[in-house]
Amino acid sequence: MMKRTLTLITAVLLTLVQAKALPVQQRQIISIETENSSLVLLVHENGRLETVHYGAHLDSPEQYLQRSVKTDDYNGQRGDTYPATGGRFVGEPALHVRYADGNHNTELYYTGHQVSQKEGCTSTTVHLKDYVTALEVDLVYDAYRKEDVILQHTEIRNGGNQTVELLNYASSSLYIDADEYLLTHFHGTWASEMQPESELLGHDLKVIESRRGVQATQGNNPSFLLSLNTKELSETDGEVIAGALAWSGNFRISFERDDSHRMNILSGISPFASAYPLKAGATFQTPEMIFTWADEGAGEASRNLHRWARRYGVYGGGQINPTLLNSWEGAYFNFTTKTLLGMMDDAAGMGLEMFVLDDGWFGNKYPRNDDKAGLGDWEVNKKKLPEGIDYLAKYAHGKGLKFGIWIEPEMVNPASSLAKKHPEWVVQSPGREIYQGRNQWVLDLANPAVQDFVFGIFDNTMKLAPNIDYIKWDCNRVIQSFGSSYLGSEQDRFFVEYTQGLYNVMRRIREKYPNVIVQCCSSGGGRIDYGALRYCNEVWTSDNTDAVCRALIQYATSFIYPACVMAAHVSAVPNHQTRAVTPLKFRFDMACAGRLGMELQPKDLSAEERALADRCIGSYKKYRDLVFQGDLYRLASPSDGSYYALMYVSEDRSRAVVFTYALAYEARTVGGKTFRLQGLDPSKDYKVSEQNVDRSCWWGDGQSFKGDFLMGGGFNPVLGSRYSSAVFLLEAQ
Ligand code: DGJ
Fold first, then answer.
1. Which residue's CA is minimally distant from atom 1 of ligand 1?
2. CA-to-CA distance for 648 and 305, rounded, in angstroms?
3. CATH assignment of 635-732?
C-alpha cells in the first residue's frame, strides 16, 4: 500500500516537473483591415490570442493594448481567436484533437505572424502552436480592402510522429460583442430552397448544419446574416455581419452566446462522422469562410459580398451569360432530333442566345427514357438522336445559338452498364441496403479512379461536338448508407474526401476548359455555395419556376449570392410544380431579375405571347449588364406576401433597372404603391421608362426626375391587380 502511494506521488511530481512552461510573448495587436472594417487580434504576454474587435474600421487598434483584460479567464478562456478543446476552454471548440495516446487537450499559443499583399487583398497568417505537442495551426486571413470582405481558413499541421484525429476543425471562429443578436439563415427543401428565417439568439447553442453529403444546401445554406443590437432585419440600417462557407459538403455553423454575453461564430466542415485522421507530417487545410461587416444594414452586407463574388468568388463572375431555352420542362425525356430542332428554331426566333439539351439524351442498353435507367452510360441514345449531338450543336450554331448539354456525372442508376461493371464505385456500407434516391446511387468520389471517371464524363461530353458552350452539371440525391469501399477502415475520411474529390475533378475541368459555362444544379438549388462557385458560373436557383415562389427564393438567395449566378427561367402555366397560373409578363419580369432563360415548349405559346416574349427578351438585353454587374438594392420584401421590389444600379450611378411586383391584391394600390428607390445620385436627373408595355402604370413614365425625388417617395407605380408587375429603366440625362 505504502509502495503504491509512493509511486503515485512520484508520478504526479514527475508530471509537475515535466509540465512545460507557457510561452512568453511581447503584447501586441494584429489588425486585419479593409477600407471600412477591422478585425483586431490581441497577443497576450503568455501568447494567448484573443479576438477583441470585429466591426467598424479602427484607426488606432493598438489602443486595445491599454484596455485592462484578464490574461487568463478562469471561466473558460472566452474570446480565444481559435479556441481548442483542452486547457481552460470549456465552450464549443474550433479545434478538438484526439492524440495517439488518447489525450484531448490542446492549448494554442501565438508563435508569430506574417503579412503579405495579393491582388486587392492583404493576407495575414498567424502561427499558433500547442505548447505541449507538435500540433501547429495557421490562421489565414485574406482581407479584400475595397469589398470589405475577409476570408478565413485554417491550416492544421501534425508535426508529431503519430497520427492524430481531428474531431473538430473549424475554418473560422469569430467572437463578437453586442447586446442583441438577430440571426437570419436560410433553410429549405426541394423546390423551396433558401427560405429565410430570423430569430433572436439567447444564451444557448444554435447550429445550422448539413449532413447530406451531397446536395448539401437543399436543407440549409452554409450562410447567415447576424444583425447586431436590433430585433429586426433592416435593409438600410445597423450593423450586420454576413458569412458564407465555401464548401459543398457537410457543414456546420454554430452560434454560442456564453455567460459573458459574447457570441462566438464557428464555421466549417461538419464533424459528423468525420474524425479526420491527420497523419504525421501532414497538413489539413479547411475551406474558406467568407465574412463581411456592414453598418448600413443587410443591403450593404449583400452588396459587399456580391462585389467580392463578382471579382474573386465566382468563376467568370460578372461576365454576361447568354439567355437560353432549356429543353427540360418543354420536352422532359420525350424528344427526337426533330423536337429539338424545332425548339432551336423558336429559341433563335425569340432572340434567345443558347439552347440547352437537358436530361434524356444518353443510354442505349439502358436508355434514359425516364429517371429509372441510364445514368452512368454516357453514350448518345441512337434511337432518339441518330444524327448525334454534333448535328444538334452544328444546327444551333448555324442559327446563331450557343449549345449546352446536361450531365449528372456523380450518379449511377442500378439499371446501367456502369453499375454492373463497377459495383465497388457505389457509395455503400458493407452488408447494408444501398438505398436509392430518384432510382439512383451515388458514385464514390473519394476514390481517385472514380474522380478520373467523372472527369472523363465531362471531357467526353465536351468532345461530342466541337464548341460545346455550356454544361449543366446536375446532382439529384443526397448520400445515405454512407461509406467507401476505397477507404477501407478509414471511413472517417469519406465525407471530407468526397467533396475534395469533387473539387479535384472541377479543378482539372477548369484547367482544360476555362471558357465553357458551367451551371451548378442539384435538383435545383441543392448546391448553392461559394465552394462550387469557384468553378461554376451560375446555379440553377430552384426547380420551382412558379414566379410567386421564385420571388421569395430569389430574394433570399440575393442576401448572399449575386444576381449574375441566379438562373431564372420562364416556364409554362399551370406551373409544373405548383399548378399556379400567373401572367406571362409577371413570369418574365421575375426571370429578368436574374440570368434570363425559358423552359417550355415555345410552340405552345400563342402569337400574342410570342410577341410579348420577343419584347421582354429584347429589352432584357438592354439592361442585363445592370443585373450581372450592378449593385443590388432590395426595396420591398416578398416575405409578407404583398409586394416585392428590387433594383440594380450601375457602379457610376448613371443607370438603374427597377423591378416591382404585386404578390397580392391590395386596395391601397389604387393610389399607387410608393417604393423608395436607393443607390441613385440624388442630384442627377434620371429618365424613367417602363419596359415591355404600351401604357405605363406610372404617371411619370418617359419623364426625368431627380434622384432625390425618386429616392424620397416620388416613385409610386400602380400595381393594381395581383401578379401585376413592372420593370423600369432609369438613365441619367
Ligand atoms: C433536376 C434539375 O433540377 C432539373 O432542372 C432537370 O435537369 C432534371 N434534374 C433532369 O433530370
1. 523
2. 15
3. 2.60.40.1180
- The Å distance, Cα 522 to ligand 1 centre, comes to 8
Which fold is adopted by the domain 10-313? Answer: Beta-galactosidase; Chain A, domain 5 (2.70.98)
C-alpha of residue 457 to centroid of ligand 1, in Å: 18
* The predicted structure's pLDDT at residue 666: 81
How far is the C-alpha of 577 from the C-alpha of 590, rounded, in Å?
Answer: 17
Name which residue sits closest to atom 2 of ligand 1, judged by CA. 523
Task: Tell me which architecture the domain covering 324-408+436-476+504-631 has in CATH.
Answer: Alpha-Beta Barrel (3.20)
Asked if omega into 322 is within 30° of 0 (cis), the reply is no
Q: Whose CA is nearest to atom 9 of ligand 1?
A: 523
> Which residues lie closer than 8 Å to 269 by C-beta, 6 or more apart?
169, 171, 247, 249, 250, 251, 252, 286, 287, 495, 496
The CA distance from 660 to 703, in Å, is 18
Alpha-carbon distance of 94 to 267, in angstroms, equals 8
- Give the H or E element holding residue 276: strand 276-278
Q: Note whether 52 and 42 are within 8 A (CB).
A: yes
Rg (CA), the chain: 28
Q: Active-site residues: which are they? A: 474, 543
**How are beta strands 566-571 and 595-599 bridged, if at all?**
parallel
Tens of pLDDT, residues 301-359? 999 999 999 999 999 998 999 999 999 999 999 999 999 999 999 999 999 999 999 99
- Write down the residue that cell numbers 471517371 correspond to: 453
Ligand 1 pocket: which of 411, 413, 527, 540 to mutate (most atoms within 8 A of CB)? 540
Tell which one of 358, 473, 478, 541 to mutate to probe ligand 1, the residue whose CB is within 8 A of the most ligand atoms: 358
Cα angle 469, 475, 481 (rounded to 5 degrees) comes to 155
pLDDT band at 4 (very low <50, low <70, confident <90, very high): low
How many Å lie between the centroid of ligand 1 and the Cα of residue 279?
Answer: 40
Dihedral class, residue 481 (left if φ above 0, else alpha if ψ from -120 to 50, else beta) = left
